[in-house]
Amino acid sequence: MQAKRGRPRNVETQNLILSTSYELLLEIGFGAVTVEKIADRAKVSKATIYKWWPNKAAVVMDGYLTAAAARLPVPDTGSGFQDILEHATNMARFMTTREGSIFLEIIGEGQVDPGLAEAFRTRYIQPRRQEVRGIMERGLSRGQLKNSLDIALCTDLIYGPIFYRLLVTGDPIDDNYVRQLVTQVFEAIRTN
To answer: Rounded CA gap, 130 and 152, in Å?
Structure first.
């Protein structure tokens, strides 16, 4: 086993940097956040930030992901339908807030920054897809969903239209829309 090099992160300082980057993200948007602004507000050196993160995108992404994960718990009600409905509804509600609009900014910035796009897919999108996979696998193990279920396809069928409205059409996204969407998909994948 290889020993780790350097000093470990100070958790208190790390949390301060993450919360500061998130506050700035909400206040001024991704494009205007700089490592200098994060360091000034957190009262740490830029070297401290660069010791733990390679660039602005990485620290801002971590700050955003930490905050977003805390606001989007994974339900386990005993019903695959209810769990997906709650998960999709909570995600849609979050996405239509100022905090959620940061998501759209990051996607936009990712169009010109492939590293940011890949980091966002790897560190935010894929973990959310894994959450949905877990919910659907529970539904399968409970006999609530068809054994032939293609989980990745069903995930796209449920969540894709929400992102389509957010990113393309601008049509409203409310609880009723999400319920109709989840209900339509579950009519095809339920066992009864």
So the answer is: 10
pTM to 2 decimal places? 0.80
Convert the pLDDT of each residue in 91-120 to its tens digit.
999 888 888 888 888 888 888 888 888 888
114 contacts: CB under 8 Å, gap ≥ 6: none
Based on its alpha-carbon atoms, the radius of gyration of the chain, rounded to whole angstroms, reads 19
Q: Vertex 146, ends 144 and 150: CA angle to 5°?
A: 120
The answer to whether 189 and 145 are in contact (CB under 8 A) is yes
4 vs 9: CA distance, rounded Å: 12
